[in-house]
UniProtKB/TrEMBL annotation, chain A:
Name this polypeptide is given: Transport permease protein
PANTHER family, A to Z: DOXORUBICIN RESISTANCE ABC TRANSPORTER PERMEASE PROTEIN DRRB (PTHR43077:SF8), TRANSPORT PERMEASE YVFS-RELATED (PTHR43077)
Organism of derivation: Streptomyces durocortorensis
Family: Belongs to the ABC-2 integral membrane protein family.
Domain (ABC transmembrane type-2): residue spans on this chain: 42-285
Keyword Membrane: yes
Automatic annotation (TrEMBL), chain B:
UniProt entry keywords in alphabetical sequence: Antibiotic resistance, ATP-binding, Cell membrane, Membrane, Nucleotide-binding, Translocase, Transport
Keyword Cell membrane among UniProt keywords: yes
Organism placement in taxonomy: Bacteria, Bacillati, Actinomycetota, Actinomycetes, Kitasatosporales
Entry annotated with the keyword Membrane: yes
SMART domains cross-referenced by the UniProt entry: AAA (SM00382)
Protein name: ATP-binding cassette domain-containing protein
Length: 287, 324
């Protein structure tokens, strides 16, 4: 027989278990996903086109027609709009995470991971962390474009950064929804459309693009309790983009009165619920 | 003493399909078991249960002496799995793929890197090590997948249809690698639809169909069970099948198998070429026009056919979807 079998047996070290192993394994998987993203830059670029288009279209097409607190001054609408577009953009991380995980299932990689002595949640955590990096890059570019078209903040840097952190936390939470979708469908294509379709009503029945006061009453209630609206309102507040003529809340919904806190709570709730469901689904995943 | 892989009474149902219907397996240490069966027979389900990917509805299993249901993570340290698809990340290089798997086996980054280098050499992938796996040929991807399953030296290996979709040359290469591995003392459970593969690699063979083990033994034992020579006749027209069947029934020494679609009849015989001449004469006398006739020694294909009543690779494509 060939001499190639003579190398000494290599044994798998005993897993340390616990949080340390979890973090380590997640970072290994995150690195893998980041390498992939760097090698498929068109995915990142396509992810940027839609929000940039929205920034430009909403600013210049709708900008002069939408009344913000009784004024149709385009500058007011720009400042009102950006937090909404940023928030919508971060929620699109859902589709990326979903498609990526569905693809891994489809190609048998999830089976490989599940047969390894690695931390159970690490494949999903690694993926969502990589998505967070991508979302951060996307937001940086998008904020640049927004500044170019005339968006301005009116608070100190700390608060502005806080606003972006609020957005990133929402994006991270939504990528866990994507992870669950990715594990639940059979093809990456289904995960992409399944990850996007419901985002349109979710992001439009909100305070993101127009103030809710002109909506029918029942929609006002939905919009003001929408977790997405809390983040938009929170970011708007931290950017100093709240408009004098637009009331904080029309229906008196608690999240609109305390948008920053509500946004953090909503995001944490989404992470806890969807992470639990996704990890459970992962443990019994079948390609 | 139970073998390196031992399972008793495994049952797994998906809806009303009994994918595993009371499967017992035992693979003594250092041997190869070939799990043979058509698509949808339950081979992959059995592998998934034994590799901790799927919990059975009932039954027990141990791998390397460790309880699969109670200590799945312990089992994972002791096994290598090469599944039906080459499960490698195509946007990572060969080296990055192996390093990642090494680190997920809890090796340090440095050890994983060193181990990746050794495996890339061993599997003839050193030249392609720093190219993304997307650029690899089917054979290279398979080799990379196998290397990933061997990042640690697992005492027990599972390979689910390792050579499906490979051309003959690549299949041959992979067989050499697998033989090397087994010579090194690894216990291997291999599923395959290729009887030639089981014949060549496996010490013992288990034939599985509809979730049940329907025969087990060495390749020679199974062949002996099927009987000696057989004659195979392909008639020209479908309406001649019945007449040909009666000729073969009277001259043969056992049940005649008919595949209607290909108008092929098979019957166990003894008497060699002389009998063949007799069969041709009788068929001619009955006015049966034949497209082909041959005397054959049994192969594992025949064993399979006689056990399951259908050919190993027939209908494979239609059944494929159902198993996914």
């Amino acid at each position: 027989m060939s001499t190639t079998t003579k190398d000494a047996p290599v044994l798998a070290p005993r897993p340390s278990g616990g949080v340390v192993q979890s973090v380590k394994d997640s970072l290994v998987v995150a690195k893998r996903n980041l390498i992939r993203m760097a090698r498929i830059p068109e995915m990142v670029i396509f992810g940027l086109i839609q929000p940039i288009m929205f920034v430009v279209l909403f600013t210049y097409v709708f900008g002069g027609s939408i009344s913000i607190g009784g004024s149709t001054d385009p500058q007011l609408y720009k400042e009102f709009l950006m937090a909404g577009i940023f928030a919508q953009t971060v929620t699109f991380a859902t589709a990326g995470a979903g498609a990526g995980i569905a693809d891994d299932m489809h190609k048998g990689l999830i089976d490989r991971f599940r047969s390894l002595p690695m931390a159970r949640g690490a494949v999903l955590t690694g993926r969502t962390l990589a998505d967070l990096v991508q979302t951060t890059l996307t937001l940086v570019v998008l904020a640049g474009v927004a500044l170019l078209v005339g968006w301005r903040t009116h608070e100190n840097l700390g608060k502005v950064i806080g606003g972006f952190l609020l957005l990133l936390l929402l994006g991270y939470a939504f990528s866990w929804i994507g992870a669950l979708i990715g594990l639940s469908v059979r093809t990456p294509e289904a995960a992409t459309s399944g990850g996007l379709i419901w985002l349109f009503p979710l992001t439009f029945i909100s305070n993101a693009f127009v103030p809710v006061n002109n909506m029918p009453t029942f929609l006002q209630h939905i919009a003001e309790w929408n977790p997405f609206s809390a983040t938009v309102a929170g970011a708007r507040e931290l950017f100093g983009n709240t408009m004098p003529g637009v009331p904080k809340s029309v229906t008196g919904a608690w999240p609109m009165e305390h948008p920053v806190l509500a946004s953090v709570l909503w995001s944490i709730l989404i992470i806890v619920v969807f992470r639990t469901l996704a990890v459970r689904k992962y443990r019994s995943a079948t390609a | 003493m139970p073998g390196a892989i031992h399972a008793e009474g495994l049952v797994k149902t998906f809806g009303d399909v009994r994918a595993l219907d009371g499967v017992d397996l035992d693979v003594p240490e250092g041997t190869v078991l070939g799990l043979l069966g058509p698509n949808g027979a339950g081979k992959t389900t059995a592998v998934r249960v034994l590799t901790t990917l799927l919990r059975p509805d009932s039954g027990t299993a141990t791998v390397a002496g460790i309880d699969v249901l109670r200590k799945p993570n312990e089992v994972r340290r002791s096994i290598g799995l090469s599944g039906q698809f080459a499960a490698v990340d195509e946007y990572l290089t060969g080296r990055e793929n192996l390093q990642m798997v090494g680190q997920l086996y809890q090796m340090s980054a440095r050890d994983a890197k060193a181990r990746a280098g050794v495996l890339l050499d061993r599997f003839n992938l050193a030249d392609a090590a720093d190219r993304t796996a997307k650029t690899y040929s089917g054979g290279m991807r398979r080799r990379l997948d196998l290397a990933a399953a061997l990042v640690v030296s697992p005492p027990v290996m599972f390979m689910d249809e390792p050579t499906t979709g490979l051309d003959p040359r690549n299949r041959q290469q992979l067989w050499d690698v697998i033989e090397d591995l087994v010579a090194g003392g690894t216990t291997l459970l291999l599923t395959t639809q290729y009887l030639e593969e089981a014949d060549r690699l496996a010490n013992d063979i288990c034939v599985i169909d509809h979730g049940k083990v329907i025969a087990r033994g060495t390749s020679d034992e199974l062949k002996a069970r099927t009987g000696g020579e057989r004659v195979e006749v392909v008639v020209h027209r479908p309406d001649e099948i019945e007449r040909a069947r009666s000729v073969l029934t009277s001259l043969g020494k056992g049940e005649v198998t008919v595949v209607r679609l290909s108008r092929k009849l098979t019957a166990p015989v003894s008497g060699g070429a002389k009998l063949l001449a007799e069969i041709i004469r009788d068929l001619d006398a009955q006015g049966v026009e034949i497209d082909d006739i041959a005397l054959r020694r049994p192969t594992l294909d025949d064993v399979f056919l006689s056990l399951t009543g259908h050919a190993a690779e027939a209908d494979a494509n239609e059944e494929k979807e159902e198993t996914r």
